UniProtKB/TrEMBL annotation:
Residues 14-112 form the AB hydrolase-1 domain. Belongs to the AB hydrolase superfamily. Hydrolase RutD family. The keyword Hydrolase applies. It comes from Roseomonas populi. PANTHER family: AB HYDROLASE-1 DOMAIN-CONTAINING PROTEIN (PTHR43433:SF5), HYDROLASE, ALPHA/BETA FOLD FAMILY PROTEIN (PTHR43433). This is Putative carbamate hydrolase RutD.
Amino acid sequence: MKYEITGKPGAEAVVLSAGLGGAAAFWKPQMAALGEHFRVVAFDQRGTGRNAEPLPEGYTIAHMADDVVEVLDDAGIGRAHFIGHALGGLVGLELARRHPARLGRLVPVNAWAKVERHSERCFDIRIGILKSQGPAAYVAAQPLFLHTAPYMAEHDEKLDAEIAHGTAHFQGEENLLRRIGALRAFDARADLASITAPTLVVAAKDDLLVPWTASQKLADGLPDARLWLTETGGHAYTVEQPEPFNRAVLQFLLGG
């Protein structure tokens, strides 16, 4: 697995795990702020970006958590904090279940213990676009599920560039469907009470893709969790409004 480490040499490590797109670049708005205090470990998830390869049938969130351990082992990092967005948040929960000794503090962003039916409807729509119109249409529709309308209206050129890049570097239909299958199959509800890592569950109330109540259920089921909500910012709140998110996460990771 290819990865990069930036930030403060010798400091505690924090791993960043993106959502369904899998790209480390998703966390660009957080890199500098986190890097002032931590070694920041970022990587494209297996099957995407710089780690593009065909994923095997039956690929799961557990496999993704094992990929994180592989990165930590290769980097010589015994224990790290973890920030995961949506699917990436599930990877963090699985890491807490499978490898608790490797995990410090956990920050799942717009994540869930078990996917909501509403989210599955959204994935069905996106899969339908992919199968009927192809990758370019799928990528072009993606901002509708990630961002708020005001943000999209104010960032036409940025979104056009992201759509062009996403189309050119599309992870492939089979990989995408297997990654969606992995998040759909994930169910951590029975194990939440045994996850003892201090956790900050983050959600945006206007997230179109994942109801914020899924995060509330997640926080309620964890023994050492607090819920941090924002009124607006959409599914990609970390991109739309990075400053308040960065402040809240840094305060949490630094022990506040």
